[in-house]
Amino acid sequence: MASRLFPGVLLLSLASLAAGACAGGGGIAIYWGQNGNEGTLAQACATGNYKFVNVAFLFTFGKGQTPLLNLAGHCDPASTGSCAFVGADVKACQRMGIKVMLSIGGGVGSYGLSSRDDARQVAAYLWNTYLGGKASARPLGDAVLDGVDFDIESGGSAHWDDLARFLKAYSRAVVLTAAPQCPFPDASLGTALGTGLFDYVWVQFYNNPPCQYTKAGGVGNLARAWEKWAAIPARQVFLGLPAAPDAAGSGFVEAGDLVSQVLPVVKKSKKYGGIMLWSRFYDEQTGFSDKVKSSV
User: Which residues cross the membrane (predicted)?
Assistant: First the structure.
């Protein structure tokens, strides 16, 4: 016997179904900014594939150095107004509900923190130049990014926890994310991640054979490392992967293997937030996010 639903009840039922469909679902984080041929930031967001975009990289800062932003072939941050269109794109992405982060560090650069006071000064620079503060020179104009991504691959391990504390002290709304290597704990960010101040952590499960997936070895090494990462005091943990074989030295996982072998393992964790891909340029070449987004 068919039941009859009144319009209000029907709407409530549909809303409940939608909420159920989203429960436990993950998102995709992407890095943008390191290849002038990857299209604009607005175009990346318009795909609808990404929940987070990391604008990369602020690659020089700390130790008394003048901070420098590098956006490869997109624009020249040192030239006034050159990157204003990126700021407009940030706003466009945010209107779509996408969080946009400034990624600091990276694999090539000159950065590090010499003291707690150095961390305080870098935090002030980040707040005033890219976040909610005010500075006479803002490379991305008046766009207010959602937070800061710590992609610390050199520069030592000292005072990143101080930087995190100073940034959160400006506003609890500042989103902090990090991209540690999969060997646990991360040599650079282990102490900082222990503060519990990081919202999202996308662990790089590539360029590190002892803790990455291979067809021959299976998911065992990755699963053991993932279990440790899933226990850190962060809101969510993401599985970081290259979006193409050429995007990293090792660790690329075919879309089919990711969906059938890897995701069923990592999604068991309550901390699972989705996947991170390096980078937008490679993702555009392979269509990787298109292939996996419905399973993430």
Answer: none
Asked whether the CA dihedral 116, 238, 140, 105 is positive or negative, the reply is positive
Strand partners, 111: 61
Grouping H, G, I as helix, E, B as strand and the rest as coil, residue 94 is helix
Instruction: Give the count of beta carbons closer than 10 Å to the beta carbon of residue 48.
Output: 11
Reply yes or no on whether the pLDDT at 14 is more than 90. no
CA distances from 230 to 65, 186, 213, 233, 289 (A): 35, 14, 17, 8, 23
Q: Residue 88 forms beta bridges with which residues?
A: none
Q: Which residues contact 252 (CB under 8 A, 6 or more apart)?
A: 206, 241, 242, 244, 245
pLDDT tens digits for 131-161?
A: 999 999 999 999 999 999 999 999 899 999 9
Q: 27-292 architecture in CATH?
A: Alpha-Beta Barrel (3.20)
State the Cα torsion 157-160-162-164 to the nearest 10°. Answer: -160
227 is an active site residue: no
The answer on pLDDT for 295 being more than 80 is: yes
- Output the CA–CA distances (angstroms, integers) from residue 48 to 52, 113, 164, 227, 268, in the order listed: 11, 36, 30, 30, 25
- Each domain of the chain, given as residue ranges in start order, spans 27-292
How far apart, in whole angstroms, are the C-alpha atoms of residue 97 and residue 231?
Answer: 28
Q: Longest C-alpha distance within the chain, in Å?
A: 76
Catalytic residue (choose from 153, 227, 254, 284)? 153
- Answer for the pair 45, 98: CB distance below 8 angstroms, yes or no: yes
Q: How is residue 94 written in tokens?
A: 């945010």
CA dist 288 and 95 (Å) reads 24
